[in-house]
Specification:
Oligomer: single chain
Number of domains: 1
GO biological process, one term: phosphoenolpyruvate-dependent sugar phosphotransferase system
CATH architecture: Distorted Sandwich
Helix content: under 10%
Main location: cytoplasm
CATH class: Mainly Beta
Strand order of the largest sheet: 9-5-6-7-11-3-2-13
Keywords: Kinase, Phosphotransferase system, Sugar transport, Transferase, Transport
CATH topology: Glucose Permease (Domain IIA)
Low-confidence stretches: none
Number of helices: 2
InterPro entries: Dup_hybrid_motif, PTS_EIIA_1_perm, PTS_EIIA_component
Structural class: mainly beta
Largest sheet: 8 strands, antiparallel
Shape: globular
Distance between the termini: 6 Å
Subcellular location: Cytoplasm
Order of helices and strands: EEHEEEEEEEEHEEEE
CATH superfamily: Glucose Permease (Domain IIA)
Radius of gyration: 14 Å
């Protein structure tokens, strides 16, 4: 079983409600989104332990011991920013522990550029319904490290 924790504090949003057709159609996989509680600088942490197989300023993928890829995408369409406003804290290929700081950004700066600062957490290649929420529902508030879902 893969346990996935919240990478930041905020309010939960169902993937079906995010404003991106790739994520809200579950094309990438099942998961949930967190709208950061803080408009100031936010540190986005690893939601699980594993190998950081892909690290970009706006997104990272951790491959778990169970060979599940967990994608954390920081904001919607933030690839357009070409790294501006993001501070990457780990190197691609390294092992990361659950809760380890991965990326810093300021949600308000993303919003000021007309983009959604929501943080998406997706179990790649999973089907809708595979991510079993752990006593949480969309609209709930979570702290960094709170259990989100398991597969």
């Amino acid at each position: 079983m893969v346990a996935v924790m919240s990478p930041c504090a905020g309010q939960l949003t169902a993937l079906s409600e995010v404003n991106d057709p790739v994520f809200n159609s579950y094309t990438v996989g099942d998961g949930i989104a967190v709208t950061p509680a803080n408009a100031g600088e936010v540190t986005v942490c690893a939601p699980c332990s594993g190998k950081a197989i892909r690290v970009m300023p706006h997104a990272f993928v951790i491959l778990t011991e169970e060979k599940t890829g967990i994608l954390v995408h920081v904001g919607i369409d933030t690839v357009q920013l070409k790294g501006e406003g993001f501070d990457v804290l780990v190197e691609q290929g390294c092992h990361v522990d659950m809760g380890q700081a991965m990326v810093r950004y300021t949600p308000q700066e993303v919003a000021d550029k007309g983009l959604d600062p929501v943080v998406l957490i997706v179990a790649m290649d999973s089907a809708r319904g595979d991510a079993q929420l752990t006593k949480l529902s969309p609209g709930d508030k979570v702290e960094t490290g709170a259990p989100l879902f398991h597969l």
